[in-house]
């Protein structure tokens, strides 16, 4: 199966290019952003050596669906989705924090908790919790947005004290984050899923806060299957989940957590295909539709054609 690992476009009036861990972002006339969601995959803030077929399409299409489903809560950056792997939107100045919200004790928060910490990003947690337990109420555990290297936990108090975000804007970000998580939880429940945790990124343009980037995708969120959740918790069994956590667990089991000197384990075709299938499974589960694979024979030329058509209308 073919995968899109990198792009090298030169669009009309292109004024900038930025290569992120997963996304290639082209700036047009300092006015619009063309975001190409590649098939690259990252874990522990490291881009893994093999790309995952159809991963970019899955992420872009899930994000497009949920951005459309939440625009009554907060305006978002999207202007057009001209290709299964591309979103075009307005340029916003990003806030330098990611708003992570957790309804359950899983992933990074659980690793911190199991190491003995009872405070995550300044939020206190009670004793006696088990991995994947539902929290008394959803908590926001922000991280700093690192352009290079690891994002780092930070508390609300530090964000305000360092002037990273003003108190007025931060309280609005909190309000939006809780409302978006509530909406995401309701949508997931209709599909028999639990939205365990997720992250949102926001930016500002002309004095207006916009929701930017992707939302509620397996790269930015963790999902459990609702059916059997309570039984698995009661029996101290792992939760059945749909998220990128299975990739992290595979890496950990093979001696890799992104630390100095560690080497990414061999990503065999079987491993790559299994990851691709898990991404498609999540798409079909949460969107409730059969995943239609886009033509992969000439991905770059298809994207270029679709983007050029879209730019003519903006």
UniProtKB/TrEMBL annotation:
Keywords: ATP-binding, Ligase, Nucleotide-binding, Purine biosynthesis. Coiled coil: none annotated. It comes from the Bacteria. One of its GO terms (molecular function) is phosphoribosylaminoimidazolesuccinocarboxamide synthase activity. Its EC number is 6.3.2.6. Pathway: Purine metabolism; IMP biosynthesis via de novo pathway; 5-amino-1-(5-phospho-D-ribosyl)imidazole-4-carboxamide from 5-amino-1-(5-phospho-D-ribosyl)imidazole-4-carboxylate: step 1/2. Gene3D superfamilies: ATP-grasp fold, B domain, Phosphorylase Kinase, domain 1. NCBIfam families: PRK12607.1 (NF009251), PRK13961.1 (NF010568). This is Phosphoribosylaminoimidazole-succinocarboxamide synthase. It comes from Pedobacter alluvionis.
């Amino acid at each position: 199966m073919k995968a899109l690992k990198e792009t090298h476009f030169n669009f009309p009036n292109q004024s900038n290019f930025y290569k992120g861990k997963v996304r290639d972002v082209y700036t047009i006339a300092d006015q619009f952003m063309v975001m190409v969601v590649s098939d690259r995959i990252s874990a522990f803030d490291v881009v893994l050596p093999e790309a995952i077929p159809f991963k970019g399409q899955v992420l872009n299409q899930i994000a497009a669906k949920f951005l459309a489903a939440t625009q009554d809560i907060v305006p978002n950056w999207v202007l057009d989705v001209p290709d299964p792997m591309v979103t075009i939107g307005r340029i916003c100045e990003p806030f330098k924090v990611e708003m992570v919200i957790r309804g359950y004790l899983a992933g990074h928060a659980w690793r911190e908790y199991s190491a003995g910490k009872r405070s995550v990003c300044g939020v206190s947690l009670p004793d006696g919790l088990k991995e994947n337990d539902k929290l008394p109420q959803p908590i926001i555990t922000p991280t700093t947005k690192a352009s290079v290297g690891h994002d780092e936990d930070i508390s609300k108090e530090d964000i305000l004290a360092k002037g990273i975000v003003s108190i007025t804007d931060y309280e609005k970000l909190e309000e939006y984050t809780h409302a978006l998580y509530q909406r995401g939880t309701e949508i997931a429940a209709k599909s028999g899923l639990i939205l365990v945790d997720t992250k949102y990124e926001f930016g500002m343009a002309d004095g207006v806060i916009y929701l930017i980037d992707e939302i509620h995708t397996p790269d930015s969120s963790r999902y459990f299957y609702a059916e059997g959740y309570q039984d698995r918790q009661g029996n101290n069994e792992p939760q059945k989940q749909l998220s990128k956590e299975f990739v992290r667990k595979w890496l950990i089991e093979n001696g890799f957590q992104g630390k100095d000197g560690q080497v990414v384990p061999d990503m065999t075709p079987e491993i790559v295909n299994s990851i691709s299938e898990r991404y498609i499974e999540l798409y079909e589960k949460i969107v409730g539709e059969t995943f239609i694979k886009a033509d992969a024979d000439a991905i770059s030329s298809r994207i270029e054609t679709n983007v050029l058509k879209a730019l003519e209308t903006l």
